[in-house]
Hints:
The protein is α/β, with parallel strands linked by helices and 444 residues long. It is 39% helix and 25% strand. The strands form three sheets. Strands 9-8-10-11-7-12-15 form a seven-stranded mixed β-sheet, sandwiched between helices. Strands 3-2-1-6-5-4 form a six-stranded antiparallel β-sheet, with helices on one face.
Amino acid sequence: MQTQIKTTKKTKIDVESTKKEDLKKWVLALEKKTEYSSDKFTKIEEKIKDSIARQVSDEALSDITIWALVLWSSDIHFECFEGKIQVRFRIDWVLVDIFTLNTKEYKLLLERLKYSANLKLNIINLPQDWKYSVKIEDRKVDIRVSVLPTKYWENTVCRILDSKKSIVNFEELWFFWTSKRIIEKTLDKKNGMILVTWPTWSGKTTTLYTMLSKLNTRDKKIITLEDPIEYEMPWVVQTEVNEKVWFTFESWLKSILRQDPDIVMVWEIRDSETLTTAVNASLTGHLVLSTLHTKSASETIDRILSMWLKAYIMASALDVIIAQRLVRKICPYCKVEKEKTSQEVALIKAMMEEIDMKNIWTDNIKLYEWTWCDKCNNSGFKWRIWIYEIIHINESIRDLIRWSQKSDEIIKAAKDTWFISMKEDGILKAIKWFTTIEEVLRVI
Ligand SMILES: [Zn+2]
């Protein structure tokens, strides 16, 4: 990698004639390598191993959980290989090696994990899952544990469900001001529907829970249908569908609607029956928030129509589609302005032209890079930010959907209003120094 970068820097290219795709490759090749490392990792290892040696496994488990929280991790992984167990934390959505355990050490910790999460100690050949809680400064943090038998032993993954980090202030969702206005207007409506679309690791949980907490006032009744309940919200009636009994998502949702809610949150639309019930709820005086597993806002429209929902019904029920991706936020503590390469300037210029923002003088745009510090575990990144593509279903788009127009026609019409594509939002966030151009290039 290093030699490649050196060669790239020396070679002169004609940036004017180079294709955008090639420019992207050049820019990505010049990126500084990110490797998470910190003295803290050694400290964690020493502390945990000391507790295990003293046979106080509850202390070891509590310490490992607290350290994961301190490092802003979302998950703790224990991966079994021959003779050793790798402990990894997912920090900023990237898996980071923290330390290794030997089989004797892991045995003690695994038993404590299974005991704390109410799992059966004697079952070692079947997957199991449940949760445990830790108390940190007067608040309770739930940890969902999943144990999976593998070739060598049982692998464990602990998902940290920390509401303090996952429900943010609405402003901190960083919607572009026009999109923010549209979403706020829709959240004020008595009936309607907001769909968040999500590939894996897009942070939809935070977006949904944050919108819900904005709606959470004492004059409204909110009922959720979740799978499973991730965070407890005060005054919200939260339910978890139990498909082991005869109830399906759809029949559960119908029961919820008989409870006179104002706002309903359906964790995920998985089938056409649930979609029809959710759409009917929106048309009969409820505000519905839900998610669909698609890659983009435009794909969502095609997907819904392929789920046998009649176009004119969907046109009346739906208000906003939010497609989102996560990018890592550049560390605010060690970022410095960097000298732009000719490739970067050419690429930004090409991208600006493509999104019709050629009037912005690219020479004035500043780019930042990091210098590594302890606060970001020497990775250059700290926390994350979303980039969005939001379609507001206004009257002209409703008409297009009613006439079953293809999604590209709909996007074309959306561009006549305040539509910001994922690419535009990404570039705007990179030039506002929230993230790096390379992070944006990877997801768009
Ligand atoms: Zn830093």
